[in-house]
Specification:
By secondary structure, this protein is of the alpha/beta class. Helix content is about 40%, strand content about 15%.
């Protein structure tokens, strides 16, 4: 009994031979050879009847290989650690004995931390700092970075400012940012970038920190609606020698006073989730610029 699949295969060979004389000569040797085994998943008759299958059987070396998928593009901050210090903490005011004990800031003694400032409506600086840090962390993760934060929530106390510096120093961070907002005079507006001065531990990162501070200033002006401060610093830059986070750093770092919480115009921005995200994107751009990734 002749199987229908084999009958179709025979007709296919004859049609091919009639259409192409060159194939006629090979019918006995190549085209007439037994069909490939059905172990590949289809029937023997299907394999023999397929012109593509015949060509592959005749000359496997000429089969076109499937293209490999393109490799995934490496993210610009892959393998890089970035440090974030969201200033203060949400419950610092509940433990004055702890936050008021004295620590060494690299030049002199200062208190462990403070409560930070707040807007007239009671929106705290600690909350603002942490929100921006979370948005920045997510943006950095999206670019492939490993992120180390000095606190993981806004419902705790501390750590002290010297401990925060040590956490970031030990993290292997290539760059770090301390996020704050100011409590200046009610008439004053704008942001200020605080930069370190040499005092020993930070000597080798002073120039890099100044360069990073310039990147932060440029990014905030280009990407946010917050102007440079009109009451603090010079054209948006202020050097400080009395802050543990800057005095004790061994990685390039600046502190950003993102705006003045006691000013009504600035406060409306600082409490807005839209502005907080905008600020985080600006800080991401500054970090990328500093690391020469874009």
């Amino acid at each position: 009994m002749i199987r229908p699949g084999r009958a179709r295969a025979s007709r296919a060979r004859l049609l091919t031979a009639a259409a192409c004389p060159a194939v006629l000569a090979c019918l006995v040797t190549a085209c007439g050879s037994p069909p490939p085994s059905s172990g590949g998943g289809g029937s023997a008759g299907d394999a023999a009847a397929s012109p593509a299958g015949m060509r592959a059987s005749a000359d496997p070396g000429t089969a076109t290989p499937r293209p490999s998928p393109p490799p995934a593009a490496a993210k610009p901050l892959a393998g890089i650690t970035v440090g974030i210090d969201p200033g203060h903490n949400g419950l610092n005011g509940t433990d004055p004995g702890y936050i008021n004990h004295m620590i060494w800031n690299g030049r002199e003694s200062e208190t462990c931390d403070t409560t930070g400032t707040q807007t007239a409506s009671g929106y705290t600086e600690a909350r603002f700092n942490f929100n921006v840090a979370r948005y920045l962390r997510a943006a950095l993760h999206n670019e492939g970075a490993h992120v180390v934060m000095t606190r993981q929530n806004n419902d705790g106390v501390g750590p002290c400012v010297d401990r925060r510096a040590q956490l970031l120093n030990d993290s292997g961070a290539r760059v770090a940012i301390d996020i704050h907002a100011d409590g200046g005079p009610a008439w004053g507006r704008g942001f200020t970038v605080l930069e370190p001065v040499p005092d020993g531990p930070n000597n080798h990162v002073i120039r890099a920190s100044e360069r990073f501070g310039g990147d932060v200033r440029a990014a905030l002006l280009a990407r946010t609606s917050m102007p440079v401060s009109n009451y603090y610093g010079s054209n948006g830059i202020q050097f400080r020698d009395d802050l543990a986070g800057l005095n004790l750093t061994t990685v390039p770092k600046v502190l950003i006073e993102s705006g003045n919480m006691t000013n009504a115009t600035d406060a409306a921005l600082l409490t807005s989730p839209g502005f907080q995200r905008q600020l985080a994107r600006a800080l991401l751009a500054a970090i990328l610029a500093f690391l020469h990734k874009r």
